[in-house]
Amino acid sequence: MDVHPAHQAPRTWREFFLHLVTITIGLFIALTLQAGVESLHHRHLVREARENLRREIQINRNHYAENVQTIEKNRRQLARDLDQLRDLRSGKPIEKNALAWGWDWNGYIDASWKTARDTGAVSYMSFDLINAYSELYFQQDYVNAQALAIINDAPKSAAFLLIARDPSALSPSDIQSMLISIAESDIKLATLQNLMKPLDEMYAKALQTL
């Protein structure tokens, strides 16, 4: 913003004050216009960020539904594994491929949330809006971390079978260790299911109100 001096110095107090008032009004108009432009830019930034967040939340909610089904399917498989190992422990033979491990997880994304923070859009949102988004993404990150920890820990149950190569070659202590490990995995998955329930409620609320 440039303020240019008068071409001719004021000769009277009246001309001086008139010149001062003119400069003041000009500065006021310029600052008002600048503030208006910045306000429009901030509103556009927030609107664009909220649209991106809404799309991202919808994608994550779809992932949530898929993950719920995956966990339920995996828990059913773990229950079958436990039954097979109990039979094996009691002396009943089981098929070589009767035991199974491994499951998929659709990780939740947060690129739009990080972008909104990095571009400063979050700072122009209301406190309630910031709080709602922050809680949602915090819970989402926590669920993601817990799921990945379970996935990374799950293969430990299969280590004994990998060494023995055949269920019939498993020792009683191996079978007992596998039973405990699989039971622990099932408990962790049940806990994960409980952690996920508030997340679904947050997604639903966000898509309706945010």
Textual characterization of the structure:
This protein has 210 residues and is mainly alpha-helical. 74% of the residues lie in helices and 0% in strands. It has helices at residues 13-89, 111-118, 127-153, 159-164, 172-209. Helix 1 runs antiparallel to helix 2 (111-118) and helix 3 runs antiparallel to helix 5.
Strand content: under 5%
Determine the fraction of residues in helical runs and give it as a percent range: over 70%
How many domains? The number is 1
Radius of gyration: 32 Å
Mean pLDDT: 84
Annotation, overall tally of beta strands: 0
User: What structural class should be given to the helix and strand makeup?
Assistant: mainly alpha
**Low-confidence blocks of residues:** none
Question: What is the fold's blueprint, element by element?
Answer:
Elements: H1 13-89, H2 111-118, H3 127-153, H4 159-164, H5 172-209
Helix pairs in contact: 1-2, 1-5, 3-5
